[in-house]
Amino acid sequence: HNQQEVIEALRRLQFPAGFRESNMFDGISDALSRLKDVKGKKSIVVIGTGLDTFSKHTWDDIRRVASEHRTVIYGIGMTWVLQTTYSRYESYGYDMSVPQMGLLAAEARMKTLAEQTGGLAHFPRFISELPGVYELIAGGLRRQYTVGYYPTNRNFDGKTRKIEVRLNKKFEEQVRRENDINGDDKIDKKDQKEKIIVRHKKEYSPSRKFE
Question: Cα dist. 52→15, 56, 138, 181 in Å?
Fold first, then answer.
């Protein structure tokens, strides 16, 4: 709530010279644990490459932890910084195919983690795109709302359950009519299209203490 506290905390951070390891999984796990008892809507923004080389937690661990928490994760992938570096090395004749494949896998992890929790991952290619990405995330947070339900399956055994959210048929029909600008009763290239995307948490794991 206090922007100055955030700024002061960032100023106190010290990065060891030459340290090249990445602890993304441990960092996300720590952030989620700190937010566990915080009431209301909760979101975190992960800014990084998606690479992890040094965490105690595995990819499966962090996916399970994320599914158990009611926190939306947004990702900002920074792999473009490394890709620029790799491209420079390749121009000198170095084979950087393995690192490139690693970056693709890292981006896939960022995307999966965000979508699983109802968030969205962004992958800018230039630093000038970042302000627009921040605005999109802020806008999404402002328009976020809560939908809940009581599960008919009352066996809270901790097993993962899938969640699917669908648009109401009448609402879809209303949007279709609003976008049918030329009045031919169908949506085509001549019409102004407005694609509706529903983003939500994909699954949850009800434990015996589930409420």
Answer: 17, 10, 27, 49
DSSP 139: H
90 within 8 A of 96, measured Cβ to Cβ: yes
CB 71 within 8 A of CB 117: yes
Residue-wise pLDDT for 62-87, tens only, equals 998 898 888 999 999 988 887 777 66
Q: Is the pLDDT of residue 1 over 90?
A: no
d(CA 147, CA 200): 9
Q: Which residues contact 199 (CB under 8 A, 6 or more apart)?
A: 115, 118, 119, 120, 140
Q: What is the CA radius of gyration of the chain?
A: 21
- What size, in residues, is the chain? 211
What would the mean pLDDT of 87-99 be, rounded to a whole number? Answer: 63
Q: Can you read off the two tokens belonging to residue 163?
A: 């969640």
The helix, strand and coil proportions of the chain, stated in percent and rounded to the nearest 5, come to 45, 10, 45
Mean residue pLDDT of the chain comes to 82
CA distance 28 to 77: 14
Please give the Cα distance from 162 to 145 (Å, whole number): 20
